[in-house]
Specification:
Elements (H helix, E strand, L loop, with lengths): L1 H21 L1 H10 L5 H16 L4 H8 L4 H6 L2 H19 L6 H16 L22 H37 L1 H6 L2 H44 L25 H17 L2 H10 L5 H20 L6 H16 L6 H31 L4
Length: 373
């Protein structure tokens, strides 16, 4: 039914908006914590860079649309995607309320998997586990695109954050030993002044990377919805003003341009609304940050996200920036890390996919019980 398809698209955009304010902290927590930018200026920077990043590719969107669940499951019922989105939204709001920087990406993927399993009556073949397309960069499925990056991206964020911090300190120490003008520039006052400016660039890079990876996930969900609706014949008699909903209406591209533009704008709007609870956790509770630490963490995390987006991997912005901050804090002083806060974050990571999946699974079963699916 066309009305249901439109409801699913609207719900997907609600998820995108929530993703924006839920993950705002990932882009700007460090630049706010170091007092380089005010919260308002930081949110504006993140929103603008989110918008630009979201327009720069669709590899992650293609993974969500075709590489997570078998499209036959979605074709049978648009309620599958609706419940997947509601599962992700519910978990996002729960973790936002408690100030936990959990992953919107994994909440969405968990919801998608849970709803697909419910629709397939617990047939695990409803999920695309692994699919080799002839080259390692073309591997698809949950194994290659979700579970492997879920482990490697936090590790990469931690190691890169620690390595960058050690490198910056080595450069500053070398300048101090050189004497003269370089030694004066290596003094804390000049170092803080330099990285106070440099962190604006790293925060912009982080905002770009967040939009480049995260915004594409909802693009993929909308594309998946329309692919299923087209296969089911729901879009056969669209009125002229809705003809753009046909999956092939994107000028031959995998993801139609209207989907890209809409998701980019909605995520930027969500980012502009802010997410202060999580900013407090990331920016203040894990480790005390100075501008040099914020620069190292943001640059490391954004690099991980950008590389992942290039290979179509829907990785977690939350995971990469949190572990980059941990890596920077570990390089600074392992005892400076507040492990009680880190433990709460790790539990949120572990629970996100099964929790969102369980919510989506239960919702679809409920709709089936009352005859709505």
């Amino acid at each position: 039914m066309l009305t249901l398809v439109l409801v699913v698209i609207f719900t997907a955009l609600v998820f995108e908006f929530i993703n924006g304010f839920h993950d705002t902290a990932n882009s700007i927590a460090t630049v706010v914590a170091t007092k380089v930018l005010s919260p308002g200026a930081a949110v504006s920077l993140a929103a603008g860079m989110n918008l630009i990043g979201a327009l720069m590719g669709t590899a992650v969107a293609a993974t969500i649309a075709t590489g997570i669940v078998n499209t036959e499951v979605v074709e049978a019922s648009s309620q599958v995607i609706l419940c997947a989105l509601l599962g992700g939204i519910t978990w996002n709001l729960i973790t936002w309320w408690f100030g936990l920087p959990s992953s919107s990406s994994h909440a969405l993927i968990g919801g998608l998997c849970g709803a697909a399993l419910a629709a397939a009556h617990n047939d695990w073949n409803a999920l695309v586990w692994s699919q080799n397309m002839g080259h390692w960069t073309a591997n698809k499925g949950l194994l290659w695109k979700v579970f492997l990056p879920m482990v490697t991206s936090p590790v990469a964020g931690f190691l890169l954050g620690m390595a960058m911090m050690l490198l910056l300190w080595a450069i500053i120490a070398g300048m101090a030993r050189a004497g003269g003008v370089l030694a004066r520039l290596a003094r804390p006052r000049w170092v803080n002044a330099f990285f106070g400016k440099a962190q604006i660039l790293s925060a912009a890079y982080m905002g770009f990377a967040h939009g480049h990876n995260d915004a594409q996930k909802t693009m993929g969900i909308i594309a998946l919805t329309l692919i299923g609706a087209e296969a089911a014949g729901t879009l056969d008699e669209l009125p002229g003003w809705l003809s753009f909903l046909h999956p092939g209406a994107g000028g031959g591209t995998e993801i139609a341009m209207w989907i890209v533009l809409t998701c980019a704008v909605v995520m930027a709007a969500g980012t502009a609304s802010g997410g202060w609870r999580i900013i407090k956790t990331l920016g203040h509770k894990m480790v005390k940050l100075h501008p040099i630490h914020g620069f190292a963490a943001e640059t490391s995390s954004a690099t991980v996200l950008t590389l992942a987006a290039h290979f179509g991997m829907p990785v977690s912005t939350t995971h990469s920036i949190s572990t980059a901050i941990m890596g920077v804090g570990f390089a600074k002083n392992p005892r400076a890390l507040k492990f009680s806060v880190i433990e709460r974050i790790l539990w949120a990571w572990v629970l996100t996919i099964p929790a969102a999946g369980g919510i989506a699974y239960g919702l679809l079963r409920l709709l089936e019980a009352i005859g709505w699916a």
